[in-house]
Amino acid sequence: MINLGLQILPHLQGRLHIQVNPFDAYSTQRTIAAAQRIIHLFEHLSPDLKAQDHVCIKIPSTWEGLQACRVLERDYGISTLATTLFALEQAAVAAEAGCRYIAPYVNELAVHFEEGFVDPSPNRHVCVQAQLYFEKHGYTRTAALPASLTSISECMSLAGVKDITIAPTLLRELNTTTSPDISANNDEFKSLFDNEEYVKKITDELPQQPLGLIDDEEKFRMLFTRRDGGKQEIKQIKAINVFADMQVKMEGIVRTYLRG
Predict the structure, then answer these.
(1) CA dist., res. 60 & res. 168, Å (int)
(2) What DSSP assignment string belongs to 74-121?
(3) What span, in angstroms and rounded, lies between the C-alpha atoms of 160 and 156?
(4) What's the N-to-C CA distance of the chain in angstroms?
(5) Partners of 56 in beta bridges
């Protein structure tokens, strides 16, 4: 994977994103070690590369993962992205940890792997909520980077976030969609950030002070567990399971190839 990344890097203006092993999602120390190993391998294979300037490590936004982000950013200068993120509490701790990005999932990952599955409660509002929270409390380093989008209308509805993850199929569809189709007069493609009433409502509901959860594990866990009756925590657990399943499959492919 590092060799593949080195082939991709020359074609990027920004950072290459690499995710750690999801089986380490509940271990701060293993996650830190994995991130350091990734950076080391880049520089081992490409000695002239300063990997910290070109690589961002994606880490599940469990409590343990967010603490790993804090250490990596603060002590090693390694850029991190808090992924599998579904709630404001996670976004708040990610910002306090100094993460470069958060990846709020608009839809559960099952929409990409289970035919006919539709997320009954998409999380577009968390993307808006997180970005407004960052702006309100001066977290200028951390950017919201929504992920797991399924349509160009979802992409357009989040126009206004700092960054966004768009799959190749949706990029192609956007490329063939004409300007009148996505004009401000078409409700299907209106940005939530252009809805003044909605933005004001979200802003008014945000905490007046930063949540300050990064050193309060019990409070973070309870707030996250209680968010939407536990629905968002369940979504995160499902996402980690999907990634763990994919990790096992990938290891199987590599093992078969090496035995070749």
Answers:
(1) 23
(2) HHH--EEEEEEE-SHHHHHHHHHHT-SEEEEBSS-THHHHSTT---SS
(3) 9
(4) 18
(5) 17, 79
Q: What pLDDT digit, counting tens, does each position of 179-211 carry?
A: 666 665 677 788 999 999 999 999 999 999 999
Q: Which of 203, 104, 98, 105 shows the shortest CA–CA distance to 142? A: 98
Torsion angle of C-alpha atoms 126, 132, 62, 157, degrees rounded to 10: 30
Q: pLDDT for 27-42, tens place per residue?
A: 999 999 999 999 999 9
Residues tagged active-site? 58
Q: CATH number of the domain at 121, please.
A: 3.20.20.70
Residue 131 CB neighbours (<10 A): 24
Assess if residue 247 is contained within a domain.
no
Contact 118, 111 (CB under 8 A): yes
Range of 157's domain?
2-6+13-239
Cβ atoms of 169 and 246 closer than 8 Å: no
Report yes or no on 171 lying in a domain.
yes
Given a contact cutoff of 8 angstroms between Cβ atoms, the answer to whether 45 and 6 are in contact is yes
* DSSP H or E run through 203: helix 196-205
Structural domain contains residue 244 = no
- Where do we find the tokens 């768009």? 166
Give the Cα separation of 34 and 241 in Å (integer): 19
Which residue type does 30 have? R
Q: Please count the structural domains in the chain.
A: 1
Asked if the structure places residue 63 within a domain, the reply is yes
